[in-house]
Structure formats: C-alpha cells, structure tokens
Amino acid sequence: MKAGRIYFIAYALLVVSVAFVIFLFRSQSLDIEQQNRRLELLLQLKQAEDNLDLDVLRATSFLLVQYDPFVTTVQKMRRIKAQFESPDLDPPLGREPDLPGGVAPYLAVLEQKFALLEHLKSKAALVRNGLHFLPLAERELTALNHELGDQISRLLNELYSYNLLPSELDAPSIERRIDEIEAFAEVSLPERSVFDDAIFHTRANLKLMSEMAELRERYMSVPSTPRFNEVYKALTDFYARESDRWGRLNLILLAATLLLFVALGLALRDLYATRIRAERAWRQLRDAVESLSEAFALFASDGRLVLHNRKYVEFYPWLAESLHPGVMLEDIRHRNVEAGAFVSPISAGEDGPVCRSDQPNEDGRSHMEQLTDGRWFLASDTFTSAGELVCVRVDVTETKRRELELRKLDRALEQSPSTIIITDTDGNIEYVNPKFEAATGYSAAEVLQRNPRLLKSGDKSPEEYKELWNTILSGEVWRGQFHNRHKDGSIYWEAASISPVRDAAGKITHFIAVKEDITARKRTENQLRMNAIVFDRTIEGIMVTDANNHIKTVNPAFTRITGYEAAEVIGRNPSILSSGRHDQAFYDAMWDSLRSKGYWNGEIWNRRKDGSVYPQWLSLTAISNTAEEVREYVAVFTDITRRKQDEEKILHQANFDPLTGLPNRSLLKDRLHHALASARQEGWSAALLFVDLERFKWVNDTLGHAVGDELLQQVAERLGSCVREVDTLARFGGDEFVVLLEDVRTADDAAEVAKKLIAAIEPPFDLASREIFMGASIGVTLYPEDSTDANTLLRNADMAMYRAKQAGHNNYAFFTREMNEQVHQRMALERDLRQAIEQEQLAVNYQPIVDISTGEIVAVEALLCWRHPKYGLVAPDRFIPLAEETGLISSIGRWVLLTACSQVSAWRTEGLRLGISVNLSSRQLPLGLSTAQVGEVLERTGLPPGALTLEITEGLMLEGSESTHRWMDEIKALGVGLAVDDFGTGYSSLGYLKRFPMDSIKIDRSFMVGVPEDPGDASLVEAIVAMARSLELEVVAEGVERREHLSFLKRLGCSRAQGNLFSQPVDAQSIPRLARRVLLPSAAPAPEDLASA
Amino acid sequence: MNARTDLGLRTSVIGLATLLSVPLWSQEPPATEPIQPIPSAHDQHLCKVELGERLFNDPRLSADDTVSCARCHRLGEGGADGLPRSIGIRGAQGVINSPTVFNTRFNVAQLWDGRARTLEEQVDDPLHNPAEMDTNWPDVVTKLELDPKYAADFGAIYEEGITPATIRDAIATFERSLTTPNSRFDRWLWGDEEALSEQEREGYDLFKSYGCAACHQGMSVGGNMFQRMGTFGDYFADRGGEIEDVDLGRLNVTGEEEDRYHFKVPSLRLAVRTPPYFHDGNATTLENAIEMMGRYQLGREIPDEHVTAISAFLESLVGEHARLEP
Fold first, then answer.
1. Is B132 considered catalytic here?
2. H-helix segments, chain B
3. Which residues in A570-712 belong to E strands, given as ranges?
4. Which end of chain B has less neighbouring CB within 10 Å, N or C?
C-alpha cells in the first residue's frame, strides 16, 4: 500500500532527526559545560598562584607574620589540580587530540614552586627571627657600652637595607664591615658575651638573608606564567576549533529538518484519500454484521469498540447502556465484573477452559462462557493481524446442558468404588467400569459381549443361578455373594446386587450388577475367629494392658496360672502380680527395652492370688498405632515353676539364699573347701569371720517377718560392700553371716575387715519407716594357724563369736587355743549333762531366806547342784550356761521346779510354812515354760501358788518382748510371786520395775561385799532399798555374810536377807532342823555351827 | 532513610549551636598577631564524623584486631600517647614520637616529615606500617563488611559503600572535626582582656621576642611549615646516639640535601598536654623543650623565669573539644 510506505518513511525520518538533534544538543551542551569548567579551573589556579606569589613577597618582607594563608592557598591549588586529574572530566584534558600534554606543564611548574615555597618559609622565619632579635641585642649592648651599641646599630641599618634592597648593597661589603667592628672592638668582659652574641647573630642573619634572597629569586623565576599562557592559549584555541565544527553540524541539522517537513506534508495528503475509501467499506461491513445470528463485536487495537450488533446486546443485556462505539474494552470488562454475570472459571471442571470475554484467548481458539443465569456461549475472541479484536458469541446453552448431564452419570459410573456391570437381557456384558477391571483383572475389551459367568469359581450350584435369573427376570433385585475367580486364578468374595433396567415403556432392557469386593472383610473375620480360639485355648497366659498399663483383657490360661479371674484384674495395674523379688532397676530395664525395642522377654517372679510366688517366662510386646504411639502391651507368659524348681534344686536354691541372694551354707562350705585347697597349694592364709546380728530376733518378733526379711537384705547389702570381689559373704542361717577372706596376709587384715563389718552395721537401718539400730558380734579364725579343717574353722569362728558377744556389743574376737580346750571340755560336759538327769546326779539344795526383824526362816531358794561322778560337785555357773546353750535347761528347769515344789509342799504338810524361790533361766521361756506347766506343777504338788516365787533375771525383762510381758501377767494371775534376781548387775531401771508386775527384788551379793565400809556400795544399796519401798516391793539382800551387813540392812529397814551369815545352801534334810531355830545372829549360833550342822 | 533524617536534624541543631557559640567579643582579631584564633565550628559532615570516630577507635583496622588509631592518639590525653616512641602491633617498637591528632587539619602536610600531603593520604601510612597496624586494605574492607552496622552506615553515607577511599574519607573527616577552639588565648585575641593573666601575657611577649613565633605561628601555633632541627648548634651531635633514618626528616621525602634534619614545626596548641617532645621524644618536660628550642633553634639561652612565663603562656593555648577532656 502506498500510504503505508509513506507513513513509514515519514516516521523513520522523524525518528532519525529527533535522535540526531538530541545527540547534538547533548554532546554540545556537555562539551560547553566541560570547557567552561576547565577554563574556570585554570583561571582559579592562576589566581591562587598569584595570591601565593603575593604572600611570598609579603612573607619575605616580614609583612606576613603567620603562614596559615600559604597552607590554605596550597591546599586549594592542590584541590584544583586534583580536579584536573579526576576522571569526572571527560575526556581528561591531557588526552585531547590537539592539546598534547594538556595542562600538565603548568601543573609541573606549580609543584616546583610549592617545593621552593617550603624552603622559603623556613628561611624567612629564621631571617625574621634574627632581625627581630638584633635590635634587642643592640639595646642591651648600648646600655653597657654606648659606642659599641652605635656601631652595631649602624651595622643593623646596613643589614636592613641589604634585606630590603639587596641590589644596592652586597653581602661581602657588610661582611667586611662586621670584620672591622670585630677587629676594632675592645670589649671588656661584661659586654663581651653580649657583643659576641650580636656579632654571631648578625653574621648568621646575613648568611640567611642572602640564602633567602637567592631562594626568592629562584621562586620568582619559576616559569609558571609563560606555561600558564601557553596552556591557556592552547585550550582556548582548541575550544574555538571545536565550536566551528559544531556550527557546521548545526547547518546539516537544519537541512534535515526541512526535508522532514516536506515528507510529512506528502504523507498527510495521502492519508486523507485513504480515509474516504475506508468509510465506504465501513458502512458495508456494519450492515453485514447486523444481519448475523451470532453476537458480534469488534474492538480496535487500542481497545475501543468499533462495531457490534444487536445480538451482542441481547447476549449481554447488562451492557446495553454502555455499548456504543468508542467505549473501551477495559470499561466493558469492568462492567462485566460488576454485573457478576459470569461463572468463575475455577468451577469449570474438565470441560476445557471456560473463559470470560474479558480474557480473550491469545491463540484465537474458541472457548466456553458460562453465565450465572445458566446460559452457555461458545465464544471466539480473535485478533486480526492489525491487532483488532473480533468477538463472536454463539448460544449453546441447550447442547451444553445435555452434555453435562451425561458426563455426570458417566463419571459416577467410572469413579464408582463398586464394580458395575451392565448386561443385556441375555446376560452379555455391554459395559464394565474401571473398578471391574481392577477387581477381576480383565480389561473391558476382554469381557465386552461375553457372559459374566467367566468369573465363576464353581461354588454356586446351578439351582442358585437359576434362582438368580428368576428373580431378576421377574423384575426384582437379587442380592447375594459371589465367590469369584480373578483372571490370575485367585479367588475373591463379592457382595452383589443385580437389578433390571427398564426403558420408558417399562420393558426390561438391561441388567445392572453392582458388586463389592468383601474378601478382606471375610479374611479378617476368619482371622479374628481363629485368634479368639487361640486366645482361649492356649496354655500360655495372655494379658493385654492399655497404654496406661491397665489390664484390658486376660485369657483363661491367665486365670489358671495366676488364680485371678478376669473380672478381678481388668482395669487394674499388673503390679498386683508382682512378687517384690525384683528391684526397681529390673523393672526399669524391662520398661527401657519395651520403649526402645518394643518388646521384652525374660524370667520374672510373680505372685499368685494365693500369695505364692512363682517364676514365669514372660514375653512383653508393645503394640503401636500408625503414629508410633503405644496403644497396648501384650504379655504372654508361661508358668515355669516346675522348670525353675528343677533348676534351682540343681543350682540356685541349693547354693544361694533366696532372701539375700548370698551364697548359703552349703555353697559356703563348698567354697571353703576350695579356698582351703588352693590356700594349701599356694601357701596362702585365709580367714573366716562369723557375724552374728544382735537384736535381730527382737525386730522379727516386734515388727514382723516381712521387716525382718528386709532387714536381712539390707544387712547383706551393707556387709557385701565391705568385702572384696574374691571374698565370699554367705548367709549361714537366721541372723548369722559368714565371711570367707581368701589370701589374707596377716591377722590384722582380718581384724580390719571385722572392724569394717561392725562399722557397716552400726548406722541405723531405715525399716518400716523408723530407724532401727543393730549391732554385730564377730568371731574370727585363721587358716592355717587355728585349723586346716573347714568344719573346725567354722566351729572356731562360731566360738570366737560367742566370746565377742560376751565381751559386749559390737565386738570382734579371735579364736584362741584356750577356747579350743574349753570347747572340748564343754563338749564332754554337755554329754555328761545329758546323762545327769537320767542317772540322778542332779540335786536341789536350799538356802534359807530370813526375815530380818524376827530372825525366822520364811522361805528357801532352790539351788541346783550336780554331783559329777568324775569331777565331783560342779557349780551351777559352769553347767547352767551350757544347759542353756544346748536347750537342756528346759527339762532341767522343769525338773527343778517340780522337785522344789514337791519338797516344800512336803514340808508344809509337816508344819513348816516356808516359801520357795525358784530361779528361771531366761532361755526357759522361749523353750516353752508355759504358765500352764507351772499351774500343773502346783496342782501336782499341792503347793499354794502364793508360796512359790519365780526369780527372773534383769536380762529377761530387758528383752521385754510382748510375749514375756504376757507370760508374767499370767504367772501373776496364777498367784505366783515374781522376783528380780541379782538386781543391780544389769540395767537396773525403775522403768521396767514399774512396767512389770514384780513382787520383790534381790540385791546382788556383789554389792554386799563392800557394805557398809564402801560408801559407793552402801549408798547404792540404800538407794535400792528406798526405791523398792517406794514401789512397795519387798527387798531380799543376798550375800549377807557379816554382822555388819545385817545391822546395816536393819538400819535401812530391809525386810529379808540371805547368805552364809545365816546358812549356806543345804540339802533338803537339813532344812526342817534349821527352820525350827531363830537364825538371828544375836541369838543364833555362830556361823561355824551352822556350817557344821 | 532514618539516618538521613537524623542527619538533617542534627545539622540544624549544630547550626544553631554554632550560631550561639560565636564569641561575644566580636571584635576582629588583629591580623598582625602571628597566632590566629581557631574557628569555633569545624563545619564537617556529622554522620561522617560519627562514622570516622568509630573507625578511629576500631582495632579491626590492624592485622590482629589489637591496634586502633586511638591507641597512639588518645584524645583524652591530648591526642598523643605520652611515650617517647609509640608501640604498635604485637608490641612493636615504633621509630618516632606520636604527634597529636588535634588541629591537624591546619597542618601544611601530615606526619613529622610531611610525607602525607593530606589527612586522607595519612591514613594509609600507619595502616600499612609493619610496626603500627601492619595490615592492608582488602583485609580491612573484608572485616568491616562483616559488621552489619558498618555496612548500613557506610551505605547510608556513601554510594560506593565500604571502600578504602570511603574509609579514608570518614577518618579524615573525623580528624578535621578535632579542633580546639575557644582557648583562653583565643578569647584574648578576640578582645577579652581578662582571659590571660599577666604572666601569660608576659610569656606571649617573650614567645614573640625570642623568635619562637617565627615558626610557631598561625592558628595551630605551628604545623604550617618545616624547619631544620638545630639551626644553631648541632642538636643530633649533642643528643648523642646514632643518626637514624627518621632523624633525616624531610630529606627522606624530597631527596634534597637542603632538607636534611628538616621537620614539620609541631603545633603548640596542646603542647602542655603532650610530653615528651620532638620527633624523638628527647625532651621529657615542657621546660626542657623550651630551653632546648632556645638553644638549638634560636641560638639563645633562655633564663628559667622566662621559661616559666612561656610555659604559662602555652597553658593558655589549650582550647576546647568534647573528647579532649580525659
């Protein structure tokens, strides 16, 4: 097209010329600016230089007294120089083609000047200094010597003149003048130094002055001005040439502009003709568009509406107001948004992009528009090559609606989670959905037009199929399960419902089968059924707890093993089963394993409902949910009591004490044998320590066995901490422990260990929430010194332990030879004692107890003696402890009681109304002397209970157990009296006298020895008597041997006494004779008489 | 943005302060006096001054982060360090006495021998000196860039951010702010007759008549020229010891024999605060220095009472700066 070409040319010209003009102006203006700046800088520099020169003149004439102006000026000049060299000047001056070297020559001479300036400054300062000083020197000299002062004054004047007008005078003539003055001057001492000083400074100054003058000359002759002129001229010439060049370029520019305007005029004329033609075409186009059945709109490339038809307004009624030529596409879009008539494309689904007309497709493809009133438009927005937008809309609402309907149904089928099969009335498959393909393994293509029976597994009988067909052919829905075969041969279960499909006329045209795979459900059901059976029938106990460890369920085997019914334990904590045999660390380890690994198994001791403890093999598993949180724990266990018992018999119980876990007696002996064997071989020593706990029995009696057991465990732990790994700590039985120390070097080593063991037991034990103090006695024996035989060593240690016990609390003792002999003796004695009762070697003697006020015998004390066939009379203190240890005391005691009671009863029938005191051993009570037995003796002998007094030791009361207390009360209830024997030797305490129902106390014979001479004994006896009186107790003094004793006791008001003063113990026959006499010493025969009697 | 607003505000505050600090004795100081008063305002960009002060006190400007500018130029002690010769990085012994950093903007050039023409140029000298900070620009720039505050502050002031040039500029700007106006002597120059005592005025007269003022003149009372050490008499021979490189003075810079033993005349504004004296720290007391100056520079023996009066006058030269107070 012709017009297009003209436009193009015109535009191109315009663009070129505008660019050209801009370029010209920019570069020219820039250049002028640069030029001006350079020239200005150069002039500034020159001006500063002139200032500097002026200041130099002022300074050398001493008109300038301070040099700050130099500093300021030089700094300023350097700044200007720096600007010349700065890259801001484009191009840097020195690089301009017609100006080689640029301002550099000028700048270089300036540096020269700066250097000279510094020297001048120094020099000028010195000169000025001298000129300043010399008048002072002159004045001083004049004051001293007028003539000399005059001469110096003249000299100074010449010097000044020289300085101001160096050309008229010359330095050598002044020099000569100084020499003259110096030569002629005859200066006496006081003026000499001042004179010399003046002359010296004058000379120096003259020299400095000439130097300064020379420097100034050099400074002034630096050719800075010619350099400046050269540079300045070169620069201005260069700029003049440059402006000429720009002038020529301007001319060219003007010509180009003219050309441009001509071209524009031509282009405008063409444009007019083209417009006329276009208008005609426009009218034709409009008529055509109006007759279209589609909606149509045309927008120009700038977005203005050019043309639209009535249909367009019908399609978009809300735009009726705004649709007129010239309206902007933007406005229409805006109106569309305001009207809200379009459905958001997001809801479009898979129907392809549903766009609004405000978003024309870039590629011109048609798209769908969905309106909120339900209408659908097929829209096509196309850009023409000229950038115009052509919008065409076709109403496709009806088509779209039907299509959507079908799509929806189709999707429902396709996406159904159930298998769907549609067959014709003959059963030929017409449709299967994707689920069918997945469930059967057959693709749709494989099964179409085939019968569903290809899935049959053969489990349904022909009758069943017949029934199915009858049902559906009659129009009913059939429901049931199929046991079908997958394409890969596997069998699966399906629940199916098959129903007929009818056409509009009600005729059955198809069948539709909806099926669901229920294989997994079936499988789970079977699994559950099987699990339940296992759960119920297994012989292993099963317990399930929840995450909080509360029992959820248990199986019958659980009940069988533990004795707990399910109902008893559900909801409770499994700790009800715990035996208490395991410490916290055991359970901690178990829980650790459960938490970290998810399971634990091992042996554990648990307690049955009946309290019995049994071992079980327990497997614990933590069951977690998908979130890794533990939901429940499953415990599976078997009772391994039998197995355990077998094992234990062989190993553990045979060798270890179950309570403390320590080696038991048999393992100890085993180890002892081994230790001795190796000691023999290696030449080692060994030691055996026998440890006996004190007060253990009391703990057991008063706090119960459970506490006793715990105490033993704690004791074992403490003792264990005192010995080395190689040593053996064993529980020997009851409260006895044995320590076997191997490889000890000296007896001291063993003693150290013994001390440690005692120290370990000393701190209080925390038991049953109270502090309990215990003690230990330890016997020590050494191998090979004491014995080389294991059993003997054990006996030795035991014996040494007894010795230690006798020595007091918390002691240890070594075994000695002497002990050994005693042992043998005691063993012999023990043997003999057993025979003594049968062979009637035992006899009861009686010692009278006298009423001090009347001197009459009121009672006798039964005393046992043993006539040994070999040793003769054996004292009770030698064999009674033995009898106590061996338990023989029980029968001996009963025999004594019976004998004494029957004897006294016999005397009473003879008219001797005597009372009888019988000693009780503290061992008799635990050995079974019951009140019933005492009562029986009284009954058999016919002795009134009041005549019998039982003497007990302080020790018995000290033990003070509940049973002892009860026993005493019962004895009292019988009417029998109770006396405390040997009072004062043990832990005499008012406390127990008050607590126990005592009738009398017997003061021990040891106190009477020193009475009345020893004030200590005397006051003790006095106190006991006074105390007894206050408690209304009768006092019997033992060991009364002298008259002084008697009179002392009388004075105290003591009621009864016993002792050799009255009578030794005598046999039964002697008593009646003694009893008939009054045994008061005043009236009585001498003791010797009694003895002989 | 904030920083700039802040700057604007501060500038206006300073402006007001400057206006108020114009001396009340607004009589012009006599141009005939060799000593001129120091202007009361330092007219420097306050943000740069603040940034420069941070850099001045920052040991990261040394190789091992131990030595800052402030180490040898202790503002509270008169801008020098009180040592005969300074001690640099890793205890290195310096070769020259540390000059005061106050009033250096009035100097003809920087350093004793004037080898740095400007304060900016001077920054490079101690930074690279192996006995002072012993580092290099790339290291310093890297270290400072790691500090977000520096990055932000440089960015706010300089388009190009942290570069050797901007660091030099900030430090030099800070140093240009270190002036000590409003000394008693300056007030006297401005016409306050009461500002100086009789002894101080007498000292000033002596200072001029002996000729001290020939070199020690200008605002800084020195600093604006070079002079030979030992104009009369041989200072170095009398001092004893080796002539070291630094003793050659300006010869080292210009290479001209004429410049042997020439040094920049030091400013006496804070002389009373900055013993010891001379480039080698040879004079330990002010009196000592005055006597030696008389002997070697003026060829005169100055009697003790005159020394005392001159010392008193020098005391009146000490002006004011916020950092100057210890």
1. yes
2. 2-20, 46-56, 69-72, 119-128, 137-145, 148-157, 164-176, 184-189, 198-209, 212-215, 235-239, 251-254, 286-293, 304-315
3. 599-607, 613-624, 630-639, 685-694
4. N
Q: What pLDDT score was predicted for residue B281?
A: 92
- Residue B161 φ/ψ region, left for φ over 0, alpha for ψ in the -120 to 50 degree band, beta for the rest: left
Collapsed DSSP state (helix, strand, coil) of residue A49: helix
Other Cβ atoms within 10 Å of A933 Cβ, number: 15
Yes or no, beta carbons of B214 and A74 under 8 Å apart? no
The answer to whether A375 and A398 are in contact (CB under 8 A) is: no
- A491-502, strands of its sheet edge to edge: A429-432, A419-424, A508-517, A491-502, A478-485
Residues 6 or more apart whose CB falls under 8 angstroms from that of A679 comprise A685, A686, A742, A743, A783, A784
Fill in the DSSP letter of residue A342: B
Q: Residues A434, A439, A445, A446: what is their CA dihedral angle, to the nearest 10 degrees?
A: 180
The closest of B220, B228, B268, B265 to B248, measured between CA atoms, is: B228
Q: B35, A78: Cβ pair inside 8 Å?
A: no
Alpha-carbon gap, residue A573 to A595, rounded angstroms = 18
Are β-strands A736-744 and A765-767 bridged in parallel, bridged antiparallel, or unpaired? unpaired
- The burial of A776, by beta-carbon neighbours within 10 Å (0-12 exposed, 13-18 middle, 19 or more buried), is given as buried
Closest CA to A81 of B263, B218, B118: B118
Q: Which of A62, A63, A67, A77 to mutate to test the interface with B (most CBs of B within 10 A)?
A: A67
Cβ neighbours, 10 Å, residue A176: 10
Alpha carbon A224 to its chain centroid, in Å, reads 86
CB contact under 8 A, A132 and B214: yes
> Is-contact A341 A372, C-beta < 8 A?
yes
Q: Is the pLDDT of residue A355 over 50?
A: no
Tell me if B34 and A122 make a contact (CB, 8 A cut-off).
Answer: no
One DSSP character per residue, A431-498 reads EE-HHHHHHHS--HHHHTTS-GGGGB-S-S-HHHHHHHHHHHHTTPPEEEEEEEE-TTS-EEEEEEEE
CB-CB neighbors (< 8 A) of A125 in chain B: 214-215, 225, 227
Put simply, the answer to whether A122 touches B227 (Cβ < 8 Å) is yes
**Paired strand residues for A492:** A484
What is the C-alpha radius of gyration for chain B, rounded to an integer number of angstroms? 21
- Mean pLDDT per 10-residue section of chain B, whose length is 326 residues: 42 42 56 89 89 95 93 92 91 92 95 94 94 94 93 92 94 95 93 92 93 93 94 89 91 92 95 94 94 91 94 95 85
A123 touches B at CB < 8 Å? no
Number of neighbours of residue A233 by Cβ within 10 angstroms: 10
Question: Which candidate in B117, B207, B224 is best for mutational testing of the A interface (most A CBs within 10 A)?
Answer: B224
Three-class DSSP category at A226 = helix
pLDDT score for A28: 60
Q: What's the confidence (pLDDT) of residue A651?
A: 64
State which residue of chain B sits closest to A215, comparing Cα positions: B258
Which residues fall within 8 angstroms of residue A57, CB to CB, at 6 or more apart?
Answer: none
Distances A1071 to A532, A951, A1066, A1067, A1068 between C-alpha atoms, Å = 91, 20, 7, 7, 6
pLDDT-derived band at A347, boundaries 50, 70, 90: very low
pTM of the entire predicted model: 0.45
Pairing between strand A613-624 and A366-370?
unpaired
Q: Taking the CB of residue B97, how many other CB atoms lie within 10 A of it? A: 26
Model confidence over A156-198: pLDDT tens digits?
Answer: 888 888 777 766 567 788 888 888 888 877 766 677 778 888 8
For the record, the structure tokens of A621 come out as 């598993």
Of B217, B227, B300, the CB nearest to A66: B217
- The H helix count followed by the E strand count for chain B is 14, 2
Cα separations in angstroms, A966 against A971, A1000, A1043, A1054 = 9, 19, 41, 30
